[in-house]
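To start, an entry.
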Amino acid sequence: MWMDTKTEAKEASGNRASLRRCVLSGLLLCTGDMEHLDKYMQEKLFVMQLVVWGLRGVTRVILANNPLSGALILAALYWASPWQALLGTLGVLVSTLTAVIMGQDSAEVSGGLHGFNGMLVSLLMGVFSSAGDWYWWLLLPACLGSATCVFLSSGLSPVLERWDLPVAVFPFNIIIVLYLLCTGPDNPYFPHHPTTPPGLLEPNGTELIAVEVMLGIPLSVGQIFACGALGPSLLILGAVLLYSPLLAAHALLGSAVGTLVGLSMAVRHDSLYSGLSGFNGALGCMAVGGLFFTFSWRTHLYAIASAFLSAYSDIALSNLLGTIGLPACSWAATLTTSLMLLLTGSLASYRIPIGRVMAPEHNLCSHSQWEAGDTADRESTDV
């Protein structure tokens, strides 16, 4: 009797351990780049493939590449503003379909690399529009701007590839500035809100609310998608966490650095409270802290430096462009990251080639294998 009870206890313990392993394996399949999903979708209908490509494009905005994370981000955007989320969805689909029609590289299309610029252009058109929500005429420039991003990306790619640089969001930044310059605040068809420089002093702004400043840190992550609501911003941060905990940690770190920079430069309080002062710092920190560089204590410090430089550059560009009513968007983080990727010296050995960039945890595991392979190649070519 005692032996039977002991055997049953062992079997129950083994079943629980097996269940935990299955659950853990299932969770791991949902993290990272989910390459297995691409193999599964090869024989599926084009519409289903397009959905996955679009969701990957959504996450590319925040430097991730996971369709489940993309679904969470879309849910957050629809939670915050259904109209702006609809514009973003339209933008990512139009730009992806344009890339398919133009015959762009299939790996780039399926990886969402031709969708995220179109999404950002459409989102920001809705954010800056002063015509209000559900202004259906805005769909016309949103579609045209999203499609144009693919042409710009295709033209910039051969130029930037010479230095192994990503196209990033250069097309988005160019198109949205051109659109706002063409329309103007008083355009009868597509009016938009003029931008106020963040360094403009407030008449009665002498005291800060510490809680609001702290809440601005997670809001900075949401502001990457022009989302200024706390709940959706936390959901977006959770989507990044699903893709890569290391990337999520650097997103918060960069946001905190950007907020600190805003405090040091005495920017307007609403920039601190809404997270606008921190999102460029978050992008700069994420790009260097494990995505384009293998994570180490050196590259971690380098990521912090990148966050500081991105945040200070953003304030400078915002004050400059704000004088003519234009936003700085993500020019600061884009230019800073491109500069960081061109570095030389010992830190260059941590640089990950653009074609090999994956989730930071995967990059960390694979870096030693790449180094071993490169060493073997060099030894095999020695005479």
